[in-house]
Amino acid sequence: MKPAAFDYVRADSVAHAVQALAAAGDEAKIIAGGQSLLPMMNFRLVKPSVLVDINHIAGLAEVRERGGRLVLGALVRHRVTASDPLIRRHVPVLSAAMKHVAHLTVRNRGTFCGSICHADPAAEMPMLALLLNAAVHIASPRGARVVPAAAFFVGALATALAHDELVTEIEIDTLPAGTGWGFEEFARRHGDYALAAVAVTLQRRRGVAVDVRIAVMGVGEMAIRLHAVERVLEGSDFSDARLGEAVALLRSEIEPNSDLNASADFRRHLAGGLARRALGDAWGRAKEQSVA
Amino acid sequence: MSDNRKITVTVNGVAHTRTVEPRLLLSDFLRQELGLTGTHVGCEQGVCGACTILLDGRSARACLTFAVQADGAAIETVEGQGSMEQLGRIQQAFRDHHALQCGFCTPGFVMVVTDILRHHDVETDADIREALSGNLCRCTGYEHIVNAVRELVRERGKLP
Question: In CATH, which superfamily holds the domain spanning B5-80?
Answer without folding.
Answer: Beta-grasp domain (3.10.20.30)
